[in-house]
Amino acid sequence: MLTLFFGRDMGGRGGRLSWRHTQPELANKPLNTVIETLSAGGKALVGTPDMLVQQIHTYANAGVEELMLQWFDQDDIEGLQAFATSVLPHV
After folding, report:
1. Rg over CA atoms, the chain
2. pTM
3. For residues 45 and 52, is the Cβ–Cβ distance under 8 A?
């Protein structure tokens, strides 16, 4: 099971990761560094549609047949729909 941090573009991604400033290990780090840290070692899927497709393909190439994704912002139906239409058809 992986946490999913999805944004249609990098600007949207940064807003969804604003909580990082409360985490000492992530505070004041550039957005790209935060994304790399969270996605490294199987902690989360993080990024734009193209980035997420690539990350999911990496899991598939390693033999993973199923991923469970956690979508914490349950009020963000529009974001979930955007993920479904821009990522899922490609994996």
Report:
1. 13
2. 0.78
3. yes
What DSSP string describes 51-73? HHHHHHHHHHHTT-----EE---
Cα 49 vs. chain centroid, distance in angstroms?
A: 9
Separation between Cα atoms, residue 47 and residue 53, nearest integer Å: 9
Q: Which of 13, 2, 78, 3 is nearest to 50 (CA)?
A: 13
Strands (E), the chain: 2-6, 44-47, 69-70
Looking only at Cα atoms, what is the longest distance across the chain? 36
Q: What is the pLDDT of residues 20-75, one digit of tens each?
A: 666 777 788 887 888 888 888 777 898 889 989 999 999 999 999 999 999 888 88
Question: pLDDT, tens digit, for every residue of 67-76?
Answer: 999 988 888 8
Of all helices (H) and strands (E), which one includes residue 35? helix 31-39
Alpha carbon separation from 28 to 5, 41, 69 (Å, rounded): 19, 21, 27
